[in-house]
Hints:
Layout: H1 3-18, E1 24-26, H2 27-33, E2 44-46, E3 58-63, H3 65-75, E4 81-86, H4 101-110, E5 114-118, E6 121-125, E7 135-136, E8 139-143, E9 151-157, E10 160-167, E11 169-173, H5 181-184, E12 196-202, E13 212-215, E14 220-225, E15 230-235, E16 238-243, E17 248-252, E18 257-261, H6 267-275
Helix pairs in contact: 1-4
Amino acid sequence: MEEEQQGEVQVFFDELIKQKIEPVIWQYFYEQIRNRINLPPDTKTFSLAEHLTEEIEFIISLGGDGTLLDTVALVRDRDISVMGINFGRLGFLASIGRNEVATAVKAVAKRSYIVDKRTMIHLDADLPLFGEVPYALNEFSVHKRDTDPMIKIHTYLNGEFLNTYWADGLIVATPTGSTGYSLSCGGPIVFPDSGSFVITPVAPHNLNVRSIIVPDDNIISFEVESRSENIICALDSRREIVGKNVQLAVRKESFPVKLVRLSENNFLQTIHNKLTWGLDKRN
């Protein structure tokens, strides 16, 4: 943790105490900061998702989007809202700036915030994958392994054939994930409440194959052909290597994740700020 970040983290915990909010800190993070940040001597910690009891109302993520995605994996289906304060770089999900730490904590104390319910994507497979967290906030993707040739991904909507993708991989993104990996592969930006999934090929062999947007009440299933015996399945930043004959299907998760934002930070403003839309860069 840099010296500047250390000061901002201290401001965060000082503001929690000032607002009479009792922190419960993730054990790994606590070990990193315990000798660098002034904390109450009776500070509580947790190390497992099971330790998040009904007393926990919020989880505040200090980091970038990756940290927030890890936080979502901890929250699971609990009725806990997640606030992301951006200590990383771009920060589409963790959209509250480091300079807004005190404001964000005051908003939590006064309940002066907005909760956005974001759709997640659920993975079903014919073998156990991703333990107790078979879902993602951003995307599911299937890939060839690093040195392998491209794979063929036969894709179906509710059992009806959609397309065969000759590609390095295929992404199914939620609206939240449409500004992430899918966007970098040429996919469209989709508004968070659009009720859709985005299917985007990764480095497709056929140049006439592009992203397609489908309603999120579809079940999207896959059959993969590969010269290699194994492929990679990913949910957000979590990956598993599986046999190419695995049966895969994704659908809308039965519960959303609740993201907290300050009232002035809506999706359009995030796009303007993060992608510099509407700014004249010619000067």
